[in-house]
Design goal:
The chain has 321 residues and is mainly alpha-helical. It folds into 2 domains: 85-185; 188-321, no CATH class. It has helices at residues 3-15, 24-84, 86-107, 115-131, 134-153, 160-185, 189-214, 229-247, 255-283, 298-302, 305-320; strands at 218-220, 224-228. It has a two-stranded antiparallel sheet with strand order 1-2. A hairpin with a 3-residue loop joins strand 1 and strand 2 (224-228). Helix 5 runs antiparallel to helix 6, helix 7 (189-214) packs antiparallel against helix 8 (229-247) and helix 8 packs antiparallel against helix 9 (255-283). It is globular, with a radius of gyration of 32 Å. It starts with a helix and ends with a helix.
Length: 321
Amino acid sequence: MGDDGRLMASDHSQIGPHTPAGASEPARERASARRAAEAREAQRAGRGRRRRRRRKRDASGSDLGARVLAAVPAIAVALFLVIEGGLVFALGMLVLGAACMHELYGMYERAHPARLAGFIALAGLLAAALYGDQFQVLLVAVAALPLVFGLTLASPRPSVGGIAVTLLGIYWIGFALAHAVMLRGLPHGLGIVIDIAVGTFLGDTGAYLGGRMFGRRPLAPSISPNKTVEGLLCGMLFAVLGVWIAGRYQEWLPGTHALVLGLGVALLAPVGDLFESFVKREAGAKDSGGLFGAHGGALDRLDAILFTAVVSYYVWEAYVH
């Protein structure tokens, strides 16, 4: 075989026995087309993620605005009650407490709670807090048990579950609001109640914003899946700062006292929130009621204050006495 023959054989051996000459160009075109399609798909996915983040931010902002707007009339009513104090404040607590009890007993209607016993005990606790002291409140709490038992037996479907749910409303809601009345009656009670309300509200707002912006690790997924550790920490910081800053405008409240009160609010407010979430989850309810429209019921709005009012009473009572 001559030199030309050897060159031709060498060329064919490089191309391969089954690969026609020029086949590499279409392969490169197909690979380039695949890469371009993947790039377009990645761009679409990136735009979709950005749109979802924008929608989430917009929803967060609009939801926060709606929460603040719904809180304005409630804050006005609360300020009126706190400033008036005395019988007016106690009557306001009676209305709010009855609304909270109605929601609780409604969520657990299947247990057949003795609603009348709960409302009577609530009124008794508030009257004892207004006209008496801790001892009278304790007397009413003790008397509530036989009252609940008697009215449960008189109901069409008496049950231990009904007694338990009724007592839950009395000792959770009634006790807390009785402590709020006693707190208002202490020296500088007006300012302290306002400080506690400010700290509780700011703590709730801080937890909401912190969870939206930084939330990564769930706090209690089996109770409230949307709550996060980061939101909890932000809420606690807002609560302490809220009470401390409010105390800066009250000459009679030392900074250390304000910090201790703020710490009590910061620690107990999330407990109250989780407690109410647990009660709702066990009842299979998303909201406790519809008193505040899309923002839930009275219990949804007062869950934290039902705990912070109690701890604040004992902290401030220790300071003034």
